[in-house]
Design goal:
Length: 235
């Protein structure tokens, strides 16, 4: 129960934000400002720091006096476009890319989904991983920041190989599965008898030969690189 406002994250909150802030949209359009708004999060673009401070003061006054809303002083500021973070996006010149915070959240989620201590089947793990990767890249598909994507793919594949090696815990099981996947008997035996950790074994030639990129793709591992290319260069 609440007497004032809406619970944070409630389904009615974004709808009421759009209803109430429609007046703000009309006011900004009337003033001729370039702006973008999503629910109660918005950015106004001006030509200079001085203009930004002037617009900040006048819009704050409008929101507080006309719409009876309270501005969060810690989140509201006048900065250069390269310092803006809007809906987890940042801007470099005219290019759009994901923010560093969103990338860290992505990595934390991938670590959780590829944790070797998560006691689920490989099929379930890959399915949940595919859902998350498709959703994340679907949201950030407008980004033009391609450089780290192949490296992220390599990192995810290596963590999945670690999961396979741990599942093949016994030397006999490792040997049998590696040979079944096309590894030479001598190399398979050396991996099976090795005392190295999972992460080091995942980098060996024999492991990469057995659990190669094509094999992982065939069993359901989704590639960030392929999704990015499909979004930017549709056939």
């Amino acid at each position: 129960p609440t007497r004032v406002g809406m619970p944070q994250g409630g389904p009615l909150s974004p709808l009421l934000s759009n209803v109430l802030l429609d007046d703000l949209d009309k006011e900004l359009e009337y003033r001729g400002h370039c702006f973008a708004r999503y629910c109660d999060d918005f950015v106004i673009v001006v030509h200079s720091q001085r203009a930004g401070e002037r617009v900040m003061e006048s819009i704050t006054r409008y929101l507080e006096r006309r719409l009876k809303l309270t501005i969060n002083p810690t989140k509201s500021k006048v900065v250069k476009s390269t310092e803006v973070e809007f809906l987890s996006f940042t801007f470099t010149g005219k290019r759009v890319r994901w923010s560093q915070k969103s990338l860290l959240r992505f990595k934390r989620k991938i670590i959780k989904l590829t944790s070797r201590s998560w006691g689920v089947s490989m099929g379930y793990r890959l399915r949940k991983l595919a859902e998350y990767i498709r959703g994340w890249m679907g949201y950030f598909r407008i980004t033009e920041y391609y450089r780290p994507i192949p490296l992220l793919d390599q990192w995810i594949r290596r963590r999945i190989r670690c999961c396979f090696i741990k599942q093949w815990r016994k030397p006999k099981t490792r040997y049998r599965n590696l040979v079944k996947l096309g590894v030479d008997h001598i190399k398979a035996a050396s991996i099976a008898a090795s005392s190295k950790g999972y992460y080091r074994l995942s980098k060996t030639f024999a492991t990469q030969q057995a659990l190669n990129d094509s094999y992982l793709a065939n069993i359901g591992l989704v590639s960030l690189k392929e999704l990015w290319i499909r979004f930017h260069y549709p056939r």
